[in-house]
Amino acid sequence: MLIVSTPLKQEEVRAALDGYNQDGVTIRFVRKMGIQLQFDVIGAEGYAAVDLAKAIIRSHPFGNALYFSASWQ
């Protein structure tokens, strides 16, 4: 499970990641718990999923200035 933690722009992060489907990787939003957004990832796991999520978030205009963390559980 991919966990993205951010106190700001949660809806934008959710919209950026939820429904991603490219190169055999699918990301689907599961739930929100406090500042954590939890996603199921199919086709990637571990560091690959975390790096992909970071790249997707940073590719959006809000992403470069946003304080967030991503981890795999």
What does this protein structure show overall?
There is one protein chain. The model has no long low-confidence stretch (mean pLDDT 95). This protein has one domain (2-72). The chain has 2 helices and 5 strands. Strands 2-3-4-1-5 form a 5-stranded antiparallel sheet, with helices on one face. Helix content is 27%, strand content 36%. A hairpin with a 2-residue loop joins strand 3 (25-33) and strand 4. The protein is α+β, with helices and mostly antiparallel strands and 73 residues long.
Largest sheet: 5 strands, antiparallel
What's the mean pLDDT score? 95
Q: What structural class do the secondary elements suggest? A: alpha+beta
The helix count comes to 2
* Strand percentage: 35-45%
Short description:
With 73 residues, this protein is an alpha+beta fold. Helix content is 27%, strand content 36%.
